Amino acid sequence: MIDFIHISKSYPNGDIVLDDIDFSVSPGDFVIITGKSGAGKTTIGRLLLRDLVPNKGRIVVDGEDLNKIKPQNIPLLRRKIGFAFQDFRIIPDKTVGENIVVALEVAGYDSKKIPTKVKHILDLVGLSGKEDLFPGQLSGGELQRASIARSIAGDPPILFADEPTGNLDKDTSVEIFDLLQKINSDGTTVIMATHDVTLIGLNIGRHIHLEKGKIVKEEDFTESKKDSKRKDKNDEKEDTNEDKKIA
Ligand SMILES: Nc1ncnc2c1ncn2[C@@H]1O[C@H](COP(=O)(O)OP(=O)(O)OP(=O)(O)O)[C@@H](O)[C@H]1O
Ligand SMILES: [Mg+2]
């Protein structure tokens, strides 16, 4: 689905941000890209959106080489990727509901189905009842939910959530993380960029750790391994495994 093949990227007058980065994402994956501030996580997202081009290497999305993509096909690429931006990019003078409507209109959604779809998305992200509030009236966690709502409105196969827990407390971060897992379990491939190491400890999905422009560590906690871990837990404590609601 997504291949980053020997990608290097530097900005004009800057150091190398990504140095020979190689990874693939398969449909249905939940991938967490970790690394300190400045490690290049957002740069990976912008390369994926073809907002930036690499200095070296190739990025292939659904068989399309982004080095060769025709300009008229870039909007189609971007429709495949819901991007929850680090700075939210929510329209401040529109309500939560209106923000979702705009995203659905941009995605070319059938206008007759929009009200039902908006309700569904609000419910999914946990913002039912908040649709008439303006972004400035939301808490940080709710704002993040609204941003995610907008980015998944057009049912993109891929969601890139850039630092979705950036300014949130631990409990709210875990809630947002749960929401991303829910979106993933509904079939969306999720890539999340974060410097939040507390989430990394949750041992869910695939982890790709960036340091000084390189991938220094990769771990995989997806289903088969999770099952074996859960089995181990069951052996220890038979009746307390409901903390993992991984259906
Ligand atoms: N437009 C730009 N021009 C020059 N340098 C840039 C530009 N954008 C990013 N950089 C530099 O590239 C490096 C990686 O930035 P990037 O935003 O990808 O990091 P990040 O891992 O997302 O960090 P954070 O966790 O703070 O969001 C940083 O050193 C940054 O200063
Ligand atoms: Mg960033």
Q: Key terms for this structure?
A:
Rossmann fold, 6-stranded mixed β-sheet, binds adenosine-5'-triphosphate, 4-stranded antiparallel β-sheet, single chain, binds magnesium ion, alpha/beta, 247 residues, globular
Structural domain tally: 1
Number of strands: 10
**What is the beta-strand fraction?**
15-25%
CATH fold description: Rossmann fold
Give the helices and strands as they follow along the chain: EEEHEEHEHHHEHEHEEH
Assign the CATH class.
Alpha Beta
Shape: globular
Hetero ligands: adenosine-5'-triphosphate, magnesium ion
Alpha carbon gyration radius: 19 Å
CATH structural architecture: 3-Layer(aba) Sandwich
The profile of the biggest β sheet is: 6 strands, mixed
Average pLDDT across residues? 89
**Biggest sheet strand line-up:** 6-7-8-3-9-10
Briefly say what this structure is.
The chain has 247 residues and is α/β, with parallel strands linked by helices.
Would you give an account of this structure?
By secondary structure, the chain is α/β, with parallel strands linked by helices. It has one domain: Rossmann fold (3-Layer(aba) Sandwich), CATH 3.40.50. It is built from 8 helices and 10 strands. It has a 6-stranded mixed beta sheet, with helices on both faces. A 4-stranded antiparallel beta sheet has the order 2-1-4-5, with helices on one face. Helix 3 crosses helix 4, helix 3 packs parallel to helix 5 and helix 4 packs across helix 5. Magnesium ion binds next to helix 1.
